[in-house]
Amino acid sequence: MTKVLIIDDERPIRSALRDILEYEKLQVDDAATGTEGLQKLEKDKYDLVLCDIKMPGIDGIEVLEKIMENGYATPVVMISGHGTIETAVEAVKKGAFDFIAKPLDLNRLLVTVRNALDKSIIVNENKLLKKKISKTYEMVGNSAAINEIKEMIEKVAPTDARVLITGGNGTGKELVARWLHEKSNRSKFPIIEVNCAAIPSELIESELFGHEKGAFTSAVNQRKGKFEQADGGTLFLDEIGDMSLSAQAKVLRALQENKISRVGGEKEIKVNVRVVAATNKNLKEEIQKGNFREDLYHRLSVIPIHVPSLNQRTEDIQLLTDHFVKIISEEHGIPPKKITKEAIAALQKISWTGNIREFKNVIERLLILCDKVITDKDIKQYASKE
């Protein structure tokens, strides 16, 4: 049930607000002082706070400041008398959602409360979504190789240095790219991913740089490319080793000049992006074969990060198992299952050619098909490649 906290030193105001809000089917709690209100906020979760500005002891502005300092996501609506309107406006600048003036107008109150509660719902949904995303992209492992990557990310992420991530399919190269972005100063802007292997060579330039209307037969509208979409943020070029040489030349120019031109256009557009690239190919070998530009390679590989295969870090399998059991059980709405030590040992003996991607699929299969406890016999039946 939606909960509202009223903080006001005047009993009649508290009573009037309680009657109105309870009539609207809201659960109401109240406090006669700022100190009492803050204590209630520490102990319980509220969807909205209505707070008077003028109160003895800790006034409403101090309460608002404490709420902001403590990082509560709860929207705060200030209640202001005629002499405190300017203060109320200042409170909005400090983070209050809105203010309502005394004497209280019923319509104005209800509209403000509904708007604030709508914001509260959106904030909570965003928190849940971010939590879900952070779980999905969590970097799990305590092996020396993974700890080295984590340390590298901590050092490199705050800079704008370009990073080249190498490793086999399914090792988690995208995960490293996303962590670099999340821990960077660009995290408030988007990370835009381009899978260079999935886009036909004749369309890759349009995908990266956009196109003007009429640039080619199917270009019926002007379109922004990935470089423009990632402006201010990070552009993740996955499987860069599969990019055509003509597109490589344009990417090199964009990195050199921080400018791009749309296909079919003459205007140069400034872009501010950090490029993180990844590949499962040996680019030095591709350079020797004439498939990859050496000058682009040196532009991209300012900081090289190699992601090891799962077979090279089998000591992480216990942690990875616990992690995937938890998130997959939540996704399917099924109770998590116990996996025996013998089953873990059996998982560690398997050659994981598909790396983390394959491992996650196997754990999902085991959770769906096995009984409450997953044993080494289950591993042999559902996971072993023998």
Produce the secondary structure layout.
Layout: E1 3-7, H1 11-23, E2 27-31, H2 34-43, E3 48-52, H3 60-69, E4 76-80, H4 85-93, E5 98-101, H5 106-136, H6 144-156, E6 163-166, H7 173-182, E7 191-195, H8 201-209, H9 226-229, E8 234-238, H10 245-257, E9 259-261, E10 268-270, E11 274-279, H11 283-288, H12 294-300, E12 303-306, H13 317-332, E13 338-339, H14 341-349, H15 355-369, E14 373-374, H16 376-382
Parallel strand pairs: 1-2, 1-3, 3-4, 4-5, 6-11, 6-12, 7-8, 8-11, 13-14
Antiparallel strand pairs: 9-10
Helix pairs in contact: 2-3, 8-10, 13-15, 14-16
Strand content: 15-25%
- Tell me the strand order in the biggest sheet: 2-1-3-4-5
What's the CATH topology name of the largest domain? Answer: Rossmann fold
Question: Which series of helices and strands comes N to C?
Answer: EHEHEHEHEHHEHEHHEHEEEHHEHEHHEH
Number of domains: 3
Helical content band: 40-55%
Question: Quick gist of this model?
Answer:
The chain has helices at 11-23, 34-43, 60-69, 85-93, 106-136, 144-156, 173-182, 201-209, 226-229, 245-257, 283-288, 294-300, 317-332, 341-349, 355-369, 376-382, and strands at residues 3-7, 27-31, 48-52, 76-80, 98-101, 163-166, 191-195, 234-238, 259-261, 268-270, 274-279, 303-306, 338-339, 373-374.
Description of the structure:
The protein has 386 residues and is of the alpha/beta class. The protein has three domains: 132 residues, Response regulator (Rossmann fold), CATH 3.40.50.2300; 163 residues, 3-Layer(aba) Sandwich (Rossmann fold); 73 residues, Helicase, Ruva Protein, domain 3, CATH 1.10.8. Helices cover 47% and strands 15% of the residues. The chain contains 16 helices and 14 strands. It has a five-stranded parallel sheet, sandwiched between helices. Strand 4, helix 4 and strand 5 form a beta-alpha-beta unit. Helix 2 packs parallel to helix 3 and helix 14 packs parallel to helix 16. The radius of gyration is 28 Å and the shape is globular. The relative contact order is 0.08.
